[in-house]
Amino acid sequence: MISVGRLCANNSIGKSQSGVAVSNINAQKPEIVEAPKNQIVLIGSDVTLSCTARGLPWPTIRWIKDNASARVIQDNRTIRSRRFINGVKMEDYAKYQCAANNSVGRSKSGMAAPEKSTPTPTHHKNGKPENSASQTNIIAVSYTMVAAVMCVVTRFVWNRRKKSC
């Protein structure tokens, strides 16, 4: 960045003015120094993505979701920005990127994505799980049973029919 101005000096001897003075200010293109990181997140929980950038003049940070310019989440914070997602829903599982801009240039971070997690049961003093999922299934079972009966004969009785004429 180039600054243009006029130098003026004034002391007990007199005054002096120069023509045009040109000075170079150390402008810097934005640089992402802390990029958002992948995190494992449960549905319904909260997550924070952080982005820190440096540059001169100070950059403005904005958030991009799923690399779509139509889905830009404007933040307008300079230097450090945090993206809070309260009560994560299925549509929040996406790729997030921060972009830093100033008058010298632009810089983008890599992509970060909240990853889905399944709850791990934790136990209280009473032994019941604090966070658990339960499901009841009713299963109908059909079966055939074959039985073999064994008998021991202890006596025979013979009955004879009489002939009738």
β-strand percent reads 35-45%
Low-confidence stretches: 132-147
Q: Calculate the mean pLDDT score and round it.
A: 73
Assembly context of the chains? single chain
C-alpha Rg (nearest Å): 41 Å
H/E element sequence? EEEEEEEEEEE
What structural class do you assign from the helix and strand content?
mainly beta
What is the fold named in CATH at topology level of the domain at 28-116? Immunoglobulin-like
Shape: rod-shaped
CATH architecture of the domain at 28-116: Sandwich
Spatial separation of the terminal alpha carbons: 140 Å
Main sheet attributes: strand count, strand direction, barrel closure: 4 strands, antiparallel
CATH class of the domain at 28-116: Mainly Beta
The side-by-side strand order for the widest beta sheet comes to 7-6-9-10
Helix content class: under 10%
The count of strands amounts to: 11
- Count of individual helical segments: 0
What is the CATH homologous superfamily assignment of the domain at 28-116?
Immunoglobulins
Fold and architecture overview:
The protein has a domain of 89 residues: Immunoglobulin-like (Sandwich), CATH 2.60.40.10. It has no helices and 11 strands. The strands form 4 sheets. Strands 7-6-9-10 form a 4-stranded antiparallel β-sheet, with no helix packed on it. It has a 3-stranded antiparallel β-sheet with strand order 3-5-8, with no helix packed on it. Strands 1-2 form a two-stranded antiparallel sheet. A hairpin with a 4-residue loop joins β9 and β10. The protein is rod-shaped, with a radius of gyration of 41 Å. The N and C termini lie far apart (140 Å). About 10% of the residues have low confidence. InterPro entries: Cell_Adh-Cytoskel_Orgn, Ig-like_dom, Ig-like_dom_sf, Ig-like_fold, Ig_sub, Ig_sub2. One of its GO terms (biological process) is homophilic cell adhesion via plasma membrane adhesion molecules. This is Ig-like domain-containing protein. It comes from Pocillopora damicornis (Cauliflower coral).
